[in-house]
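Troubleshooting log. The previous run stalled partway through. Resubmitting the same two chains, unchanged.
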Amino acid sequence: MAVYTTNEIRGGMKVMIDNDPCVILDNVFVKPGKGQAFNRIKYRNLKSGRVVERTYKSGDSIEAADVVDVDATYLYSDGDHWHFMTKESYEQYVMDSKDLADAKQWLKEQSDCLLTLFNNSPLAVTAPNFVILQIVETDPGVRGDTSGGGGKPAKLETGAVVRVPLFVQQGETIKVDTRTGEYVSRVKE
Amino acid sequence: MISIQHEVERQEVMWKPTATLENLRQRANLIAKIRQFFAERDVLEVETPVMSHSTVTDPYVVGIPALFSAMGETQERVLYLQTSPEYAMKRLLAAGSGSIYQINKAFRQGEIGIYHNPEFSILEWYRPGFDHHALMSEMDDLLQLILKTPPAERLSYAELFERQLGFNPHYATPDVLAACAKQQKIVISSPVVERDVWLDLLWTHCIEPVVGQERPIFLYDFPASQAALAKVRDEEPAVASRFEVYFKGIELANGFHELQDAKEQASRFNKDLAYRARHGLAERPIDQRFLAALEYGLPDCSGVALGIDRLMLLALNCERVSEVLSFAFEVA
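Second attempt completed without errors. Output:
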């Protein structure tokens, strides 16, 4: 297995810490002029999502994690399991519904997504930054209101609920930023 | 089309200075002020070799090798870029130079970070007849001149540990230090055995980042185990006549009331070499010329080395040393 020494570690690298795959967020070198040097490494555990800081003596090594992000298509769900297929190799992967976290509310069948594989098993799914979805339920807006002020909740075809301006109606299709969960614009069919 | 493509490729090559030209002008002004400070005090400016046949034995300070061969010689000789001009300057003192200072480049293997550039500028000076407290006072004058700060605070190493962490570091066992690290929520993944490494861990994580926020702070009388090249005073507990200076959480300088005893110096070098052997670190040649100078006789003196780049960073309110270097390591 490949290893990185503390001075090679950069933000974005995927490593194994305590047998869990983690992504490096920050690496700070500290050293008393006449003493032992350390690297203070901040990382996110990719399984739990927790952000943790750890210190290593400079020059120590950390095992690289076999973690890759691949473009995939969400195929369908049978309730408990979600099925995906990678775009390049047409390999299919299955994930438990409970492991999908936030991405679940943005994906409809045949949507593009990013599949994170750890030792060739799916670890996480990331929705595209922007998705286009239809509104299935929202209160009728006040006639003539085009200011965009205020807003109201709207339920989308995937089940997600976002705030939309009052003039946006049930049945319309909208663009949403999945990173913030915010309405971006109406999309004309 | 071809010319546009060419321009795009050119833009990707980082050739510009990492410091602004304004910072470089300010840097030049401040260095002129430093030279004037020493000229007014009759301290002689000297230059010593940057490349030397020997280097330090210190396990935590590592010289960068340089290869030399005379014309026609097939064998390359291993020399070292200096980690500081200390040994050469002490040879000048032993030869009777009197007070001396120098501003030059030093090199340290592996040290790179927001406050570390592998090649850096050092200001080092020596004052015969000064103890470490007298030298701290002189350095305080220089800091007030360059940083426009009020007079510095002064605390012993033990007093600072007691203030920040609530115990006396001279008597704490490795177990006590490990428990304190745990209580401070430091998670260390590497094995730590030595007491001094625990002290360094607590120092870098809990003390260094918070000290000297309003004005510089001088810390003195380090544990005897961290004496380096300082005299050790046989008190209870034994402490080294060594000091460091911090400002806004950044280590600026390290000074000693200099060890004069050649035998003691040789024994410290041998201890370093034994430590290196135990930990699988490269062997280093002992600087016999330096030891010979100590045997001849080093006058009673104190000396200090100050990181010029960090001093500039603080004087110019920058965040990283690259902002005060014409070309930081990445683009050097």
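Takeaways: Residues 21-40 of chain B form the longest helix (20 residues). The domain at 16-152+215-331 of chain B is CATH 3.30.930.10 (BirA Bifunctional Protein; domain 2).
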